[in-house]
Amino acid sequence: MRTRTYLGAALLAAVSLPAGQRSAAHADGVLWQSEVPGIDQAVIGVRGGGEGWNTRVVALRVDPAVFRFRLTARIHGVFPGWSVDQAPDRAVVATNTGQFTGITPWGWVVMHGREIRPPGRGPLSTAIAWDKTGRLRWLEANEIDAERARGEITEAFQSYPTLLNVRGQIRREIREPGFGVDVDHHDGRLAIGVLKDGRVILSITRFNGLGDLIPSVPIGLTLAEMAEVMRGLGCVRAVSLDGGVSAQMLLRANGRRQMWRGWRSVPLGLVAEPVEPAH
Known about the structure:
The chain is mostly beta strands. The protein has one domain (13-274). Helix content is 6%, strand content 39%. It contains two helices and 23 strands. The strands form five sheets. Strands 1, 2, 3, 4, 5, 17, 18, 19 and 20 form a nine-stranded antiparallel sheet that branches. Strand 18 and strand 19 (200-207) form a beta hairpin. The longest helix has 10 residues, at 223-232. The radius of gyration is 18 Å and the shape is globular. The termini are far apart.
């Protein structure tokens, strides 16, 4: 049986954030709170199907003109060693990135201008890359080689499955059975998307049925439901990051640290740090 996540006024509720001096702005029914210049946060309740009947979504909206993204890695012996606890002090936002096997990230990885891993060839994959100016590029698998040839990319990673394609559509493969994806699987989700104006959306889900008793239990939405969430937040493109027990996110703002921890460490993280002032 197929289910759907609704982002309508009747089923989406903006959750009040701690009081402070932050300004609020409504966009498509979502209440965004300004945490620091360049970063807004929204916390919404979503009713999905099955185990996702009471899901909390925490979304961050990041302005790439104010914050620069880069990858960071950590291996401890023969095990992945990165978590949001290892995020550098300058990082205002941090999250885990794409899929991995053992200590090896899946797909294309570029760090500090050096290619660490070649591209993967998954048909449902998306690559996200930045050049030295901080310009963000969303690439399908067949577009990666042209970017590699230009030699302009300084940071890049690849993940799957794609939630919203280049036309802003939810991929058929995550909506309908028969394409090798378990379309009925509910899990904790983590996703990255982009708005028309270039701002980046990072969203993590938490099962809300037990309140704060077990906030990181890996129960939540299907992939198609998460795609609808990202589209409801205004994204024109989006891809799933490693969710389930890996999903984790950090926000440092207003002298406090908010953390949504996962249950396991990963080899690769993504951080957003303030852009260095021009000299």
